[in-house]
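> call design_seq(struct)
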């Protein structure tokens, strides 16, 4: 089933981002083009959503700051422990929000902002 909204990240580092998102979030690869030769498109499945990665050497990776990808995860704290080993950066500690979510901010290997969010077990942890 297709997603209503699909996120596409254009990157000069396709394999780095594919590894980061598939390993950190357990996102299976559901599409790739072409299947043989240098890949320029990879599709990953995150729950009921798609994340598409497109290779473009002329794009400059860095701190875009114009949008953040927000992803529901089962355990925010466990996820943070793996971010740096996969080439990302933890940009802030996890926080329990008054509406019952635990959130933390990270950056992927290209510097794209990602908010990981999950259920808070205890407000004011």
């Amino acid at each position: 089933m297709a997603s209503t909204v699909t996120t596409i990240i254009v990157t000069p580092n396709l394999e780095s981002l594919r590894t980061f998102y598939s390993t950190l979030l357990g996102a299976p690869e559901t599409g790739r083009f072409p299947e043989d030769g240098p890949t320029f498109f990879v599709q990953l499945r995150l729950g009921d959503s798609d994340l598409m990665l497109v290779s473009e050497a002329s794009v400059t990776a860095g701190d875009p700051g114009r949008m953040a990808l927000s992803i529901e995860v089962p355990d925010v704290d466990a996820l943070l422990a793996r971010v740096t080993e996969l080439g990302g950066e933890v940009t802030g500690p996890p926080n329990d929000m008054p509406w019952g979510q635990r959130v933390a901010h990270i950056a992927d290997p290209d510097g794209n902002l990602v908010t990981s969010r999950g259920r808070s077990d205890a407000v004011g942890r």
